[in-house]
Design a protein that fits this description.
0% strand
Amino acid sequence: MTTALRLSIRQLLAALVALTLASGAALAVDGSEMFADPTKEERAREIGRQLRCMVCQNQSIFDSNSGLAKDLRVLVRTRMEEGETDKEILSYIADRYGDYVLLNPRMSLKNAVLWLTPVMALLLSLGAAIGYMRSRRHPVEEVPLTEEERSSAQKILKDGRS
């Protein structure tokens, strides 16, 4: 096989993989659940991009094709039809499913530990590193050997035993 043919095959395979991965998100939203008005649809998608699919866990509800994600997309659109603001919709869903459903969780006393733990670990590590470096800066004071210790050491060196 020539180098050019191998390169073409690799490019074709890469394109097929990319299309396959991209098609999952495109198929996630069913046409029947979409708004006819493009501005409403964009608003629904913007809200949905802030919500985590509880099944897929690291996809927004608009990137997931799970049943729960579809239910949440329908819920977002229903609440929009009722005239709620984006903040009210997100708050309703977070109150119902917990803060974990938000891709960018809100700051609260409950999750403050999660936000502060990395900062505290970093500060403690930095303090330990500074303490270690300061202790290494001062050389250990040498204590001279007594005459008895010196003769014992010389005997060990000469005989190879204590």
